[in-house]
Write a structure and sequence with these properties.
Number of helices: 8
Structural class: alpha/beta
Distance between the termini: 52 Å
Order of helices and strands: HHEEHEEEHEHHEHEH
Number of strands: 8
Radius of gyration: 20 Å
Strand order of the largest sheet: 5-4-3-6-7-8
Low-confidence stretches: 175-182
Strand content: 15-25%
Helix content: 25-40%
Largest sheet: 6 strands, mixed
Mean pLDDT: 86
Amino acid sequence: MDTMHSSISFTERLLSLPVELRHEIFSYALPHSQLLRPRRESHQESIVWYRKSLSPLLVSRALLSSCLDYIYSTSMFTIHVTYDAIKFHQPWLNSRGLLPSNDFVFPECFSSANRKRIRKYSITIKQPDDYTGMIKYNCQGPGLIVRMKEQVRKLVVVMNESEILDVVVINNERVWDGKRTGDGEVQRIVRASQVALEPFLKLEHRVSQVKVIGAVDIDFAKQLRQEMAKAKT
């Protein structure tokens, strides 16, 4: 009885703290992600998870809700979109300082209630070239773009379940190298591939922070940022 009373008292005191202070305390105990400085060969930040413990979720219903809000609303969720899958990519830091990773089918890996808590996405669109498309998927040319656009549309439907605050969109992980290919060919590839990003224009909620990088031209990236950041009626 005393233990139960003590647990309730602790929970009430913790939940009465300002959100910022409460989240600072949660960061020492609960799983969360953190942005690391970009490597030289990469143009994006690395997102790593600290797995910590889930035991605080078992203390009480009230603390469970607050803990889940912290985990899902403050962490950046990395989503990889490919021709045949949409997955949540979770690299995590282990005790040896290594970065193993897990991939989970998205959105099925999260409950509907927890998906609605997500506020930050880093989305990489991994578009195959014609050769890879033909070898792996028996598809090339416009068919690849149509398929990738449909995959992005499915992701946007899920994203519309919550009010997103922060989104990074990466069209392919590397920027096309003009020295390797003629400038005209580079522009053709970029303009064709960025069509797959058009469903992001249909986000139903205003995104306060937007970054669009990778294989996109300047004008399209600007249009996408402005439309995603626009107040929706």
